[in-house]
Amino acid sequence: MAKIKYALYTGCTARESTPELLKSTLAVAKALDIELILLDEASCCGASHLQDFDDMLSLTLNARNIVYAEKLGFTMVTICNTCQLNTSMTKDRLDEDSNLKDTVNAKLKEVGIPEYRGTVDVKHFLYAMLDDLGLDAIKQKVVRPLTDINLAAFYGCHNIRPSHTQAKNNGGENPYKPTSIDNLILALGGTNVEYEDKNSCCGFHVELQNPTTANRLSANILSGAIDNNADAVVTPCPLCHLRLDVQQHNIEKEAGRDLSIPIFHLPQMVGLALGLSPEELGLQHNIQEFSFIQ
How far apart are CA 22 and CA 1, in angstroms? Predict the structure, then answer.
């Protein structure tokens, strides 16, 4: 079987605030015989904030990032839910509106960037693994099953909503009852935990304006996971990870209870089952300790 190749759009967070995410993604890709070519020229997606200030700048910025993947001719893979949302929404809008596409391409031409053509797909690494490799192939590579570990999948918002955009890139994931991460947990030998807020908002994008609301949203997630006997939470989004892991002490203050629980980046969980060491996966950089890992 030929090696699968992708153009990896890291976004900002995986290179700066959560470098363990990029480290574990590259390690897991290698273990799965996937080649990831980093788009080092790409820049921030706008983080769902630039769009409110300058929509055209946001479109041009994201089109520019996609162009770098088009130059390689490989599917553009993201490792952040918000990057996935902004990039895929840009692609949708440009592919469906030729006048808008022409306007954006004129702006790209001003700075010497080749035109956006719409010739590559954009999908999150989670769905790249599931759609192009498959659960059975991943299961065959498991050497350290996550036996007796209860894992609560936290999907977040932007990988599954809006569904009319994201369903093109996530295998038709049901935004109300997502199952992809749960199925992956089972394939890795773990036990998936059902709880109400697995597909809710973590509060990241409201944190600066209203930290109380952000902490209450996060508290609902952690409480639900803990109350249903989860040993850890796993998320495919570094922004959700920053909320649930780094801000856990503030979330506990708002909730008025102990909400201590370790938070996996998605590839860290996968890599652990594939036999990679905690150091190779950067687990030492996570705030909450994984005491159940020997």
Answer: 25
User: Quick one: which H or E segment has residue 102?
Assistant: helix 98-110
Taking only the tens place, the pLDDT of each residue in 215-231 is: 999 999 999 999 999 99
What are the residues whose beta carbons fall under 8 Å from the beta carbon of 74, sequence distance 6 or more?
5, 6, 7, 37, 120
Locus of tokens 């759009």: 9
- What does each C-alpha distance from 285 to 23, 25, 115, 148, 268 come to in angstroms? 11, 15, 40, 24, 11
Helix (H, G, I), strand (E, B) or coil at 192: strand
Q: Which residues of 162-200 are buried (b: 16+ CB within 10 A; e: fewer)?
A: eeebbeebbeebebeebebbbebbbbbebbbbebebbbb
Q: How far apart are CA 81 and CA 130, in angstroms?
A: 16
Residue pair 157/80 in contact by the 8 Å Cβ criterion: no
Pairing state between β 34-38 and 4-9: parallel
The whole model's pTM is what? 0.97
The answer to whether 81 touches 13, Cβ cutoff 8 Å, is no
